[in-house]
Amino acid sequence: MKVIEIHELTKKFGDFTAVDRISFTVEKGEIFGFLGANGAGKTTAMRMLCGLIHPSSGNGKVAGFDIRKESEMIKKNIGYMSQKFALYDDLKVWENLRLYGGIYGMKEKEINKNIDSLLEKLGFEKEKHTMVSELPLGWKQKLAFSAAIFHQPRIVFLDEPTGGVDPIARRQFWEMIYEASDSGITVFVTTHYMDEAEYCDRVSIMVDGRIEALDTPKHLKLQYEAENMDEVFKQLARKAK
């Protein structure tokens, strides 16, 4: 079942084409890596998929909703986590979860029940009343991801979610991604860590606003005669103008 269907999606800012006629689909429960160097267009593309900006041309559906006409419905059916801003440092752990639950329209009783079960699952029971600013970075990332999928969205968008996190915490974070995928949540993730690209079911690589490669990590390595995804990425990035 396809939860993202994009055809010839384009975004122009004046004379500059940030995203140039990209087309792809993503299946339910898939972990889809969306890679590209800075300026390649991936953030602009993600913002269109999340219903935050309108495309200049092209069309598509996210979670079954038209990206041109139903952006508000898209926002209700997705989760989003970024590296730079995902939690409120001046709120307690449980207050952040309550806030996100409210934003996504969950009922108070459901929110309270889910908070307690989630904190138990994370082993955060003793941190329920801790200010988020006092948590270690790795813990913050786990909490931010949990907040992004607190309302059980059909798709969660992760924009470089593990930046600055140590390798052990990154691995633990990816275990949470696998668990979300197993539960049927589609994971759409951008990352600068090429070892993380190996964890994805499929990977697309953008260069100058276009998708230059899209396949499983295994097939991409075979196609580009590379030992790892870092070599694949470097070969494609050299094409950038």
Describe the structure in your own words.
The protein contains nine helices and ten strands. With 241 residues, the chain is α/β, with parallel strands linked by helices. The strands form two sheets. Strands 6-7-8-3-9-10 form a six-stranded mixed β-sheet. It has a four-stranded antiparallel β-sheet with strand order 2-1-4-5. α3 packs across α4, α3 runs parallel beside α5 and α5 runs parallel beside α6. It is globular and about 50 Å long. It starts with a strand and ends with a helix. The model has no long low-confidence stretch (mean pLDDT 93).
- The mean pLDDT is 93
What Rg, in angstroms, do the CA atoms define? 18 Å
Helix content: 25-40%
Please state how the strands of the largest beta sheet are arranged side by side. Answer: 6-7-8-3-9-10
Poorly predicted parts:
none
SSE ordering = EEEHEEHEHHHEHEHEEHH
How many alpha or pi helices? 9
Largest sheet: 6 strands, mixed
Structural class: alpha/beta
- Termini separation (Å)? 36 Å
Please tally the β strands and state the result.
10
Strand content range: 25-35%
Query: Which outline best applies?
Result: globular
